[in-house]
Amino acid sequence: MKVKTILVSQPEPKIENSPYFDLQQKQRVKIDFRPFIHVEGVSTKEIRLQKVDLNNYTAIILTSRNAVDHFFRVAEEMRFKVPDTMKYFCQSEAVAFYLQKYVVYRKRKIYVGKRTFSELSPLIKKYKDETFLLPTTDKLKPEVPNILDGLGVNWKQATFYKTVISDLSDLANVSYDILVFFSPSGIDSLFHNFPDFKQNETRIAVFGNTTIKAVENRSLRVDIAAPTPETPSMTMALEKYIQKVNTNKKRI
Q: CB–CB of 215/183 below 8 Å?
C-alpha cells in the first residue's frame, strides 16, 4: 500500500530546514507531529525528599536538554546560586550548545562527549575527585548508572522531571499510513490511549533497539527501523521505504 500520511510521535520541528519538511515536499506525503509523551518537572519538595542538597555537588552530568532546563529550574526554585566553579559534563555537543542558554561558555568548565553516555565516561573518570549529580528523568536507561558505578566515582542520581503520557483521545477516529516512534514510552502511550489498537495495514517505524523491542513485546510488526548503516536517521529510513512502496508497480 502506498504511503500518503505519517504521524510522528514528537513535537513539530521548530527549524525551517528540518529533513521532515524536505521529505514531505519531495515525496508528496502529509506529515503530522504529535508528542505521545511530554515532560513535567518534579517539585522541589519531592527533590528534597530524595535527599538532594545542591550545595554538596561540584559537577553536574547532563544527558539531555530537558536535564539542563530542569537543573536550572530547580536551582532557581531552591534559590541556589550555581557557582562559577561548577563543572558540567554534557553527553553531546547538542546538550553542551543548549547549556549556553544558562551559562557563559568562556567562564565555565564544560566537558563534552561525542554522542553516547559511554563516550562521555572517560571524561568523567578523569575527575574522580568531583562529587557528581545526575539530574534525570524517571525513565533513565539502566546503562547510565551501570557505567557510573563502574567508574567508581562519587555520584548521585535524582529525578528532576518525569515522562508523562499525553492525552490523544482526539485522534481516536484518525488513521495514518505510518506511525513513527522513538521510545518505549511512546508505545506505552499508544496503548494507554487506545487499549484496543490493532495494527492491520498501519506501518510502524521505530528508532533504536529498545523501541523495537517494545513494539515486538506488544506483538506489533516493525516495518521501518533506524538507525542502520544505510539509513542512520529516521527521515532517511522513511524516504527509502516510501520510495519503494510508492513507486512499486503492480505485477501482472
A: no
- Average pLDDT of every residue of the chain: 93
- Run of H or E including 90: strand 87-90
- CB-facing half-sphere around the CA of 42: CA atoms within 13 A: 20
**100 & 202 share domain:** no
Q: Which domain holds residue 217?
A: 5-36+166-246
In a domain, 251, yes or no: no
Task: Write the CATH number for 96.
Answer: 3.40.50.10090
| Sheet of 59-62, strand order | 37-41, 154-165, 131-137, 59-62, 87-90, 109-112
Look up the pTM and report it. Answer: 0.77
For 6-34, write each residue's pLDDT tens digit: 999 999 998 888 999 999 999 999 999 99
End residue of a domain, out of 113, 135, 163: 163
Residues 33 and 166: their CA atoms lie apart, in Å, by: 13
